[in-house]
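Help! Submission page says 'invalid entity' but I think these are all valid:
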Amino acid sequence: MSKYVYFFGGGKADGNTKMKNELGGKGANLAEMTSLGIPVPPGFTLTTGVCNYYYDNDHNYPKELKKQTDEAINNTESIMNQGFGNADNPLLLSVRSGARQSMPGMMETVLNLGLTSKTIPGLIAKTNNPRFVYDAYRRLITMYADVVMEKAEGVKTKDGHGIRHRLENILDKYKDKNDYKSDVELTADDWKHLTEKFKEEIKINLGKEFPDDHMEQLWGGIGAVFKSWNGKRAVSYRKIENIPGEWGTAVNVQAMVFGNLGDNSATGVAFTRNPATGENKFYGEWLRNAQGEDVVAGLRTPLQLNETTKAPGDASESLEIAFPKIYIDLDKIRIDLEKHYTDMQDIEFTIQDGRLWMLQTRTGKRNGQSAIKMAVDMVHEGLIDKNEALMRVLPSQLDELLHPMVDPEEEQNVSPLAKGLPAGPGGATGQIVFTADDAEEQAGQGKKVILVRDETSPEDVHGMHAAVAILTSKGGMTSHAALVARGWGKCCIVGCESLHISAANKTLEVGDKKYKEGDWLTLNGTTGKVYEGQLPLKDANPDSNQEYAELMEWADATRRLGVRTNADRPEDAVLARKFGAKGIGLCRTEHMFFDPERILAIRKMILAKNEKERRAAVMELLPYQKADFKGILDAMHDLPVTIRLLDPPLHEFITLDDDALLELADELNVASKDIQKRIDELHEFNPMLGHRGCRLGIAYPEITEMQARAILEATAELTKEGKSVHPEIMIPLIGSLAEYKNQEAIVRTIAKKVMAEQNVEFKYLVGTMIELPRACLVADEIAESAEFFSFGTNDLTQTTYGFSRDDIGGFLPVYLEENILPVDPFQSIDQGGVGQLVEMAVKKGRSTNPNIKLGICGEHGGDPDSIEFFHNVGLAYVSCSPFRVPVARLAAARANLKK
Amino acid sequence: MSKYVYFFGGGKADGNTKMKNELGGKGANLAEMTSLGIPVPPGFTLTTGVCNYYYDNDHNYPKELKKQTDEAINNTESIMNQGFGNADNPLLLSVRSGARQSMPGMMETVLNLGLTSKTIPGLIAKTNNPRFVYDAYRRLITMYADVVMEKAEGVKTKDGHGIRHRLENILDKYKDKNDYKSDVELTADDWKHLTEKFKEEIKINLGKEFPDDHMEQLWGGIGAVFKSWNGKRAVSYRKIENIPGEWGTAVNVQAMVFGNLGDNSATGVAFTRNPATGENKFYGEWLRNAQGEDVVAGLRTPLQLNETTKAPGDASESLEIAFPKIYIDLDKIRIDLEKHYTDMQDIEFTIQDGRLWMLQTRTGKRNGQSAIKMAVDMVHEGLIDKNEALMRVLPSQLDELLHPMVDPEEEQNVSPLAKGLPAGPGGATGQIVFTADDAEEQAGQGKKVILVRDETSPEDVHGMHAAVAILTSKGGMTSHAALVARGWGKCCIVGCESLHISAANKTLEVGDKKYKEGDWLTLNGTTGKVYEGQLPLKDANPDSNQEYAELMEWADATRRLGVRTNADRPEDAVLARKFGAKGIGLCRTEHMFFDPERILAIRKMILAKNEKERRAAVMELLPYQKADFKGILDAMHDLPVTIRLLDPPLHEFITLDDDALLELADELNVASKDIQKRIDELHEFNPMLGHRGCRLGIAYPEITEMQARAILEATAELTKEGKSVHPEIMIPLIGSLAEYKNQEAIVRTIAKKVMAEQNVEFKYLVGTMIELPRACLVADEIAESAEFFSFGTNDLTQTTYGFSRDDIGGFLPVYLEENILPVDPFQSIDQGGVGQLVEMAVKKGRSTNPNIKLGICGEHGGDPDSIEFFHNVGLAYVSCSPFRVPVARLAAARANLKK
């Protein structure tokens, strides 16, 4: 015979904390607490198996259920020394849902079951508190009518308003009529009168009587919970959270206890440590003569639990003073729970007539900073080991320490103006500007500016750098703005579609509001929310955080995966070193071309009529590039620096408006129509799949020659200065060995020449970016020549899925909504598809070159789930933007522990 | 001891025809002919091993070589009864290269070796023909100076002109001075005088004496041939033809025989069958008292070999009449050679003093029509079997029968105006027009027009259809114009970059020539050549060709691979059936949207503000689409028809110029700025990777519903009419099972509804196009639900390589030139990369669905090499444009035979 009902109470329980699948999280914890000897109101859990049976069998219960439930009720009665439905000493029950994973607010609860015309007089006699009883009764009626009679049965009131709304209306009118300001003023008679009214209204509107039988009430409540599992809200939530419908919900039936029976009763919620700071102090709030919902509702101000957590000057009474003996018991329970669960707990308790009851314990939510502190403290306290500490802190929680934040206290009091995609974390406040030049100019005057654009392009980079934050109306999480901002750890919100931006008029409209240049906005880049005006910010200061430093030390000792950074400038390299990066995994060279001094040379190159002219133009860039590379190699001395040769298609360097075109024609003394003709020639239908990457270096070998020379001359000069530098030259967008060899030969030839010219020996590597499906398929061939592979998973995702990251916005929302994609594949690597190619390339690459160096430098290098995948397929390192380096270090450690 | 020298002569030979790797093609055939008892001038072959030894050992020969060569010379001398270097009865030798694969004109030959001051008097005495001897001597001097003394030694004449040029100059001046018009007029003394002059000139210019020793001459010649293997010309040729340098060349040394010793001597070339018609008649030309080069040079008109091939009224003397006994011998040799080689041979012969010598036999080149005739005839003659016949005809040779051609006789007399890519085969002549509308209008007036555009778009399709040919200045072999034209078997040249087209002025400029509307051009779509004016065409008429029909029957009986067609219109389907297609592998539905009546509905749909409006607009298309599908299903009754749901991004349907936009705004009563806004929203950076394929159907399920309904209602109606139709609904651009299931569910639901509404049962399949790397990687998952896969190898190539087929023109030329790509991967499938994915998808697909139907509908379906690959990976069918169907049938048969 299947066991469908698990009893708990009186220090004994059928279940335990490991049975979350059968009992749900809440039920399993109630059982566990009971077994620990903690005073928990007795009760029982109907398993998730009942839920599944119910749905598999046309809303019928297993035949054993009734009997098992009756037994459990008997046990509950005997522990409470009350009788369910008993006229003299009635037991009241609550019914609550409880799934394997918490689904807050998604499913139903009914309290006070068992109040009937038969039991009410007895309970009044026993409590001597008719007001309490009728108040409890009207709560039961309201909840039951709403949850069981209306929602679960799918009945509609005639006018379409819900029954709860109608009942609340009656209450409001009654209060108006009697000039009551608050529920507290209502007397026992008032409540009694209202319960009669409520029942009439229910009869009229739902066509059924409110049940006056305790058993009917109980089974109605149980059925409503099971039905709510497939209610609209719950189904949508499961879809979003990827919770399978087959999990089902359990139902917890538990004896009611009341904190509102008088001044010897109370209720409270507490955390075993401070969830905001992580401090190891018992932290919570309580209210005398109140129910749990009163603490949360905010009608009365709750009081501090103990003296030590009271603010200076707070004269209110703590539970420690008011109920000293109970406080000692509670504090002991707190210690026991932490020892048992080895984690901070979020608990609820009720004191009924001087007796303490624990209603709930669960692992408490915490912010990033406190997560770190608790984890490290618990190691020092001997509660957990270092590995467990590393598993306790989510990599994403480090973000809070690494970026200034909008002050959360202030933020919760204001409504956002708009919401976009959280592309660059942290908070920022500044005056808006509409062009990159304005950004640079006004920032130069000492202003804090936010650059507002429809979207950004490489020519905006100087302005983006000058701004404190970037806000765009278009683009996704991997748009240009997002990539650049994330690289700099700059606050950025993209794809904020409700913004209407006129760069020409320098205005920003949102709904009926209009902002002009110089107006203040505040951005929360962690959530994507945009606010009007200036909100206060809290500074980031990870270095001063000792626990953070300790945790990161443990992470470094634990991880196998190396962590490098993506950095194009020496200052980024310095920053990344500070964050713990051990080298550069991707130094893009194209950004170096956009500087106004240099762009002219590249445009000359593009417009050259023959190879000789082209070569001359390209060589003008040599001194600039050499200086760039010297700077970055020096900043990352002693560590490897992977430099990618020019990647974007040439048309990116010669996107000009009419004025700029005429200006250029003038500067170069070329007919403007010839420039226009060349621009037209360079136009591509799908630039992502166009003439870029190594295809440029193959068609224009002089570009590769110049870049190789710049890197290798920089290396030679630094080597002669006694510095140890380690360049790794990366050839982009390779799809075949023939392409690779063509470019490699140029680099090796230049290297020999430079060593001879400068009379110095140095080491360097040549390798390739693996970012096309074909490169993965023929990785064994390429690895015969390449010394390293660095996976460019952004482009690999684009080509494997056939998704342009610039255009995915057209269908990504519907894909996520319909659960066709579990997550944006540019955020977290698609392990099932793109991941197969990465694994294939790793295996094939090693098959012909066992010592090949393998890394990844796409945006996924900073995503914890992706990092775990890269660890598992055996890469040597990940590379990510400087601000993601700590995140990656922790994620890498966790990946190793999980494996 | 290694054998480096292979002797042949006197009916015996060391080598044979199978030893091409060691002896080269020429040497192996000379050995083989000798062994067959055919009179071949004796000689010997130095193996390719000598060549490799030579290059591996710093230009030294193996030590055994001298001795083996001397022995072979002795054998040659004894058969010829002459002595090499003998003063009284001198043997002369020739030296010729001969690689494993023919490399025409790439390497060197030296004739008449052995003429020295010592042997000349003897030869004069013996031949009694001093003019012949000095003429032979000056030929030796010229060739030797050029090939051995200058090129092989890398010596340069002082003024940089080659020595051959200088010697010819001397001859020309001498002729001028003596008023000689032709070489024939020169006397023995003239030649003798010139040989002295030549030798002086050589001494002065190359600083060395012309060698007067026969052995020095011989080894000089041999060395020059080996050196020429690594000469610039040969190396470039090998690069293009993918011939490995390690193959090396052999050297053939052979006794000289002369057809110019007098009237009892002659020379000729012949084919064992007529290479132009395929007729089984001995066909060739000869000249009395001449050398081989005289037949080719055209100074004298060669005569027909026999009476039967003489044109009516040709009064010249045939060899059959002039040398009746020798003709009988030659005809017997012809029969023997065909029997031995079982193929048509291209032979050279010389009659020296009444004695017949065979100089060469090799498999003869032939055109498509004659290839078919010979193959089929030879089967009937019992010379070869049917399988061999199928292997004898290249699939590409069928093209000649399937399209009208520019008359080759006429074509060879004119120079092309320009050259582009041969995108649609066959020839066409017509008057040029510059817009699709003009094309349609003027074609409607009965004119033959050629549509000339920079590039074409779907909106040009009506004009493309009306035109007899299409000519574009941009785009590659898989550009829109190329794809459409090939689909229709229409003559088309694309990417003809030297054209400057002004559609506005209706002019076409090429260099300094200018053409206007109505001017005539002729296009050879098989070669990509464009001619001014009207050239005559030859009609295609495969049906009247009995041998073709027979060969195709054999092909069908031999192949395992099915052949379907890509067809969007009923008339294409009818044509393809005629060509032997067994079903439609790809019916695109988007072309059906561009009709002016329909495009308004799709534009309404695009501009709809909500789902309801969108659905209403889409449903306007239902009757049109249903009629389309009825037509095509009916035309292909009894056979499967794969219909692909809408694939291109929506912006393709709403690309408008300003006027059209205003017109549309007017028609739909929408503000033009709203239309512009929507157009801007739809803009994509990489449309190839954008919101297209199933992504459209997922975002706008009403499109899928409408199309499914149109197909299935058409099916229902035809089924009720008693027709057997087999629709296969194909969902495009699938990358995951979730996408597939989303769209499949819509189709299945509609199918159930239609069956119920129309009260009829019918069968249909649902499957998907496999055209993304990810689809191949997760093919096992997709195959759990999909009933068929059809590989879309165009898109798969784009994403696997990361090559946009619209943009590949920017670097494809340099990739082919540098041999980074062996061939355009859009022409012939990249077996090493894209092919791996196809194979993977086949294996994975079958692993979960062993009965899954597998086909391919990309452009590669008509490419013979690709078809062989698809056969080998086990696909069930290929689908190609109607005009490629016979090609595919033959290629499929050959693939099966090869395997």
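Support: the input was valid. A stray whitespace character was the problem, and the output above is from the cleaned input. The mean pLDDT of chain B is 92.
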